[in-house]
Write a structure and sequence with these properties.
Distance between the termini: 38 Å
CATH architecture of the largest domain: Orthogonal Bundle
Strand content: 5-15%
Organism: Jiangella mangrovi
GO molecular function, one term: sequence-specific DNA binding
InterPro entries: Ada-like_dom_sf, Ada_DNA_repair_Zn-bd, AlkA_N, AlkA_N_sf, Alkylbase_DNA_Glycosylase/TA, DNA_glycosylase, HhH-GPD_domain, HhH_base_excis_C
CATH topology of the largest domain: Endonuclease III, domain 1
Catalytic activity: Hydrolysis of alkylated DNA, releasing 3-methyladenine, 3-methylguanine, 7-methylguanine and 7-methyladenine
Number of domains: 3
Number of strands: 11
Mean pLDDT: 94
Largest sheet: 5 strands, antiparallel
Enzyme class: hydrolase
Low-confidence stretches: none
């Protein structure tokens, strides 16, 4: 957390880089805002600073209707931190508390409920229930404004356990009833397309999202994803059903169109869409460090705001990582497409060329490995990997301990350091991964006039901590 005077200077400058990093509560109005709120700058003595929207709500402030502080990018801190707080915040964002309660969250983290609550209150000013409740309010607002679902159905879809709790929370956060929120959206003429949820996903500038699409396009597996012009479209396997997401980068936001079999999956779908495009990154911090490096400086200047492409499903990425071992990107894409066609779940309503959901680990684990179109050694590796994912002895969700997950991946026969660290970077959103033995890195480093020996590359990459994943994308981009 920045000191309060630095925070207030950010508020005076309406600095959007700090949106989602902290929130301001204005005692003279009783509202809380993002730092870039276009309203008049409040007097210093009337301002309090909070780590999360939930903390501001707990202090008695309601959300500003002008700057919509609940729609800010998430704090990049939670992606960087590998401790229990960072892991908990990633899981809460994915909707784990709504689905499994605080007990489920604590179980995944390996701590008691009391420890998790105490640690979160100390670090971010709110416990897991309060954080989840704040997130439910935002989910409910999106559903109220973008769908025609009945109000009572929206309450339960957003994760509330009762209509009374739903009504009380919406009034507390927005100073409006659910029906009044919906009425304001209708008066504003917000467009609704039947069967879809349309929303804007905020991010911090600068953002090289074209670079993310260029990375994803040649790797797009037929049947589950495609890049169509400026739109990335793919299927989602979510806790309550399947869905399709369409993501189109715009100036300052990503236009997201979601088609969900069950609206209860909205929170998880949004979190996964944000991860695949790395929308919660702090580009200023990354570019400041990497841009000062003599080797990377010109690359950062040419493509500021480089993002690390993530994934919507850690299990899927691990499977695709094994499929891609020792073959080209095109060949791996072809093999993955065959698995999708043979074992993927057909969607009830295909969109474009997206017709299936990627086969789950349990489905692939039940398949005779000799039928997989690959060498026998890789067949055994894929079967062992999917078996461990299916019985949860290996987990690749946002809340896992990254070091432990990497150790467990390396324990799978046939998975080496390259695959394990690639999965760690993209599936677990670790911002500090480098692949010094990668053949592409070797060629790129030589092209940059830098040492290409893996040991020398690894030593050089130490200068790029804690943003080595972003450095890797810059290096790969030169190929």
């Amino acid at each position: 957390m920045l000191d309060e005077e630095a925070c207030y200077r950010a508020v005076q400058g309406r600095d959007a880089r700090f949106d989602g990093v902290f929130y301001i509560g204005v005692t003279s109005t009783g509202i809380y805002c993002r730092p870039s709120c276009p309203a008049m700058t409040p007097k210093r003595q009337n301002v309090h600073f909070y780590r999360t929207a939930a903390q501001a709500q707990t202090a008695g402030f309601r959300a500003c209707r002008r700057c919509r502080p609940d729609a800010t990018p998430g704090s990049a801190e939670w992606n960087v931190r590998a401790d229990v707080v960072g892991r908990a915040m990633r899981l809460i964002a994915d909707g784990v508390v709504d689905r499994d309660g605080v007990a489920g969250l604590a179980g995944r983290l390996g701590y008691s409920e009391r420890q998790v609550h105490r640690t979160l209150v100390e670090e971010v000013g709110a416990g897991p229930l309060r954080l989840a409740r704040s997130q439910r309010a935002h989910t409910a607002r999106v559903l109220l404004e973008t769908t025609e679902l009945p109000v009572t159905e929206i309450g339960f879809a957003a994760g509330f356990s009762s209509i009374r709790q739903f009504n009380d929370t919406i009034r507390e956060v927005y100073a409006l009833t659910p029906s009044e929120l919906r009425g304001r959206a209708r008066r504003a003429g917000r467009h609704k397309t039947p069967g879809t949820i349309e929303l804007r996903l905020a991010y911090r500038q600068p953002a090289d999202l074209r670079g993310v699409l260029d990375f994803l396009a040649p790797r797009a597996v037929p049947g589950i994803e495609e890049v169509d012009g400026d739109t990335y479209r793919r299927s989602l396997t979510l806790p309550h059903g399947t869905g399709v997401a369409e993501l189109t980068p715009r100036d300052g936001y990503v236009q997201a169109t979601l088609r969900l079999a069950d609206p209860r999956d909205l929170t998880a779908a949004v979190a996964r869409c944000r991860r695949v495009l790395d929308l919660d990154a702090d580009p200023q911090a990354v570019d400041d460090l990497l841009g000062a490096d003599p080797a990377l400086g010109p690359l950062v200047a040419a493509h500021p705001g480089r993002r690390v492409p993530g994934t919507v499903d850690g299990d899927e990425l691990a499977v695709r990582g094994v499929l891609g071992q020792q073959i080209s990107v095109l060949a791996a894409r072809t093999v993955a497409g065959r698995l999708v066609a043979e074992h993927g779940k057909p969607l009830d309503a295909p969109v474009g060329t997206v017709t299936h959901a990627f086969p789950t680990a349990s489905v692939l684990a039940s398949v005779d490995p000799s039928s997989f179109p690959m060498p026998r050694s890789r067949q055994r590796t894929l079967h062992e990997l999917t078996s461990r994912l299916a019985d949860c002895s290996l987990r690749l969700d946002p809340g896992v301990d990254r070091d432990e997950a990497e150790r467990q991946l390396l324990d799978v026969p046939g998975i080496g350091p390259w695959t394990a660290r690639y999965v760690r970077m993209r599936a677990l959103a670790d911002p500090d991964v480098f692949l010094p033995t990668d053949l592409g890195v070797k060629h790129a480093m030589a092209g940059l006039g830098l040492p290409s020996d893996p040991r020398a590359v690894a030593d050089l990459a130490e200068n790029w901590r804690p943003w080595r994943s972003y450095a890797l994308l810059h290096v790969w981009s030169t190929l």
